[in-house]
């Protein structure tokens, strides 16, 4: 088994987030690895009202979402003894942003939450599944 040096915990701030961070923190401690906890907020697309793009309310909403997510990540970081400067909140596609951050940080492990999928959700896939199939490093999917 290889030693991990750079671990990314990708969380959606849902029920599994604490478990994902706990597992990632345990692995990081075991290997003496750095740990970065990441959350990606959804981008809100601009919309067209009679030929004019509407952006200002979206910018304020996105800023509020990022600020709230950062506060949640800081709380998780304190709970599991992760330095808060190792948290990242960004906006965009969760799959694309998590993969980008993992690449930029030369991560050798990404830890994500995995929910059981049913119905249409099963057919559409999940962020965890997309990361599992596209990541260039190991991926640990923590089940609910």
In short:
The chain has helices at 17-31, 56-79, 94-104, 119-124, 127-134; strands at residues 6-10, 34-41, 47-49, 52-54, 87-91, 109-114, 138-143. It has 144 residues and is of the alpha/beta class.
Protein topology:
Layout: E1 6-10, H1 17-31, E2 34-41, E3 47-49, E4 52-54, H2 56-79, E5 87-91, H3 94-104, E6 109-114, H4 119-124, H5 127-134, E7 138-143
Parallel strand pairs: 1-2, 1-6, 2-5, 6-7
Antiparallel strand pairs: 3-4
Defining traits:
alpha/beta; Rossmann fold; five-stranded parallel β-sheet; two-stranded antiparallel ribbon; 144 residues; single chain
Architecture overview:
By secondary structure, the chain is an alpha/beta fold. The chain has one domain: HUPs (Rossmann fold, 3-Layer(aba) Sandwich), CATH 3.40.50.620. The chain has helices at residues 17-31, 56-79, 94-104, 119-124, 127-134, and strands spanning 6-10, 34-41, 47-49, 52-54, 87-91, 109-114, 138-143. β3 (47-49) and β4 form a beta hairpin. α3 (94-104) packs parallel to α5. The protein is globular, with a radius of gyration of 16 Å. The model is unreliable at 119-124 (pLDDT under 50).
